């Protein structure tokens, strides 16, 4: 039987993925290569909703793509591509825009969060219709499953509603995607403010561990991570959120359970613990950084890999759009 199809995207909005992106998303994309027909997309059309500098966007798109290959996505086993290379995304998004109610779009809570910082009316219409572009990304490829965190569930519901609406009005065209709930990686917290999530948009540089960061800098940040005045290495979300976050990071990167880690550090204090967490992070990130740097240094190779991905993605997207155009009346 054909493998189920999965689609996921990541925005090129920083110079590196951070530990949260890695554990909460891209690392979990790797195993789908062997169980699913997987499409992974660097969503640069989504990124322009907040008007980035063009040079920076171009650079970040390449860095994001290189990192996806560097974490282990293999162009022989999955399709990695850049969204803007496949113009059908924008075209389908327009069709879906015309089928979405203003009120319906206005109920998307992520827009309310993301637009808050712009002040009344200043956020772009693109940011407002962002979930509709996301629906187009998914529906173009007839994705059966979409790996999502809790924050994306509402957008996937909208995608299903739009697929159903189109199918009802124009005849069976789109597959209704199901959420694939990612293996529980609880939120990775900001090292300096363990009550907040590690986030490129809200964390201070000291609170974030970037995949492409140098070992010396990673070590410094882990050693300076906020803990508490106690000495016991123990998971306790309420009284020890900083220690809990570091335990979670070490556990996720090594596969050792948190209780085994607690037992190992019994009576040892925070110094030894933090040093070992730092080494685990350095060991995880170093090969990814080196592979990313090598790919970025070989522009032609990266271009070639992305051209292969775009070609494969385009073949599927073009077939979908041919149907859509015909049914809409073009
Ligand atoms: P940011 O919050 O830094 O802007 P994004 O929202 O672009 O990151 O997240 C991209 C992906 O990484 C999403 O799938 C999200 O769930 C995951 N992710 C981001 N931050 C974290 C975190 N702190 N812990 C776990 N997963 C995260
Ligand atoms: Na975010």
TrEMBL record:
Binding site residues for ATP: 11-13, 20-21, 149-151, 188, 197-201
Keyword ATP-binding: yes
Catalytic activity: tRNA(Trp) + L-tryptophan + ATP = L-tryptophyl-tRNA(Trp) + AMP + diphosphate + H(+)
Residues that coordinate or bind L-tryptophan: 137
Matching InterPro entries: aa-tRNA-synth_I_CS, aa-tRNA-synth_Ic, Rossmann-like_a/b/a_fold, Trp-tRNA-ligase, Trp-tRNA-ligase_bac-type, Trp-tRNA_synthetase
Organism: Sinosporangium album
Keywords from the named record: Aminoacyl-tRNA synthetase, ATP-binding, Cytoplasm, Ligase, Nucleotide-binding, Protein biosynthesis
TM spans (from-to): none
GO biological process: tryptophanyl-tRNA aminoacylation
Location in the cell: Cytoplasm
'KMSKS' region (motif): residue ranges: 197-201
UniProt GO MF annotations: ATP binding; tryptophan-tRNA ligase activity
Gene for this chain: trpS
GO CC terms of this entry: cytosol
Functional description taken from the UniProt entry: Catalyzes the attachment of tryptophan to tRNA(Trp).
HAMAP family: Trp_tRNA_synth_B
Keyword set includes Aminoacyl-tRNA synthetase: yes
Oligomer and partners: Homodimer.
UniProt similarity note: Belongs to the class-I aminoacyl-tRNA synthetase family.
Pfam families referenced in this protein's UniProt entry, alphabetically: tRNA-synt_1b
Highest taxon of source: Bacteria
Name under which the protein is recorded: Tryptophan--tRNA ligase
EC number: 6.1.1.2
């Amino acid at each position: 039987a054909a493998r189920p199809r999965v689609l996921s995207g990541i925005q090129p909005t920083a110079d590196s993925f951070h530990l949260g992106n890695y554990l909460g998303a891209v690392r979990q994309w790797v195993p789908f290569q062997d169980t699913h027909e997987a499409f992974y997309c660097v969503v640069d059309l989504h990124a322009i909703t907040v008007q980035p500098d063009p040079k920076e966007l171009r650079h970040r798109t390449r860095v994001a793509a290189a990192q996806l290959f560097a974490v282990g996505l293999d162009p022989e086993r999955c399709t990695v591509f850049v969204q803007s290379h496949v113009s059908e995304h924008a075209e389908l998004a327009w069709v879906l825009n015309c089928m979405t109610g203003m009120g319906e779009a206005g109920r998307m809570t992520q827009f309310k969060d993301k637009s808050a910082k712009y002040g009344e009316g200043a956020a772009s219409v693109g940011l407002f219709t962002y979930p509709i572009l996301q629906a187009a990304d998914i529906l173009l490829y007839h994705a059966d499953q979409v790996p999502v965190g809790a924050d994306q569930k509402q957008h996937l519901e909208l995608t299903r509603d739009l697929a159903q609406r189109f199918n009802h009005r124009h005849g069976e065209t789109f597959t209704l995607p199901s959420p694939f709930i990612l293996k529980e990686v609880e939120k990775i917290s900001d090292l300096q403010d363990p009550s907040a999530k590690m986030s490129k948009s809200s964390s201070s540089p000291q609170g974030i561990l970037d995949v492409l960061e140098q070992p010396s800098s990673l070590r410094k940040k882990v050693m300076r991570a906020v803990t508490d005045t106690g000495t016991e290495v123990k998971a306790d979300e309420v009284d020890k959120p900083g220690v809990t976050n570091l335990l979670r990071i070490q556990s996720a990167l090594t596969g050792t359970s948190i209780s085994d880690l607690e037992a190992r550090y019994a009576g040892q204090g925070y110094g030894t613990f933090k040093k070992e967490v730092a080494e685990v992070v350095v060991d995880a990130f170093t090969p990814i950084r080196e592979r990313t740097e090598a790919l970025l240094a070989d522009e032609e190779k990266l271009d070639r890999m992305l051209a292969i991905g775009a070609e494969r993605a385009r073949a599927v997207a073009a077939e979908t759009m041919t149907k859509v155009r015909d049914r809409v009346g073009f």
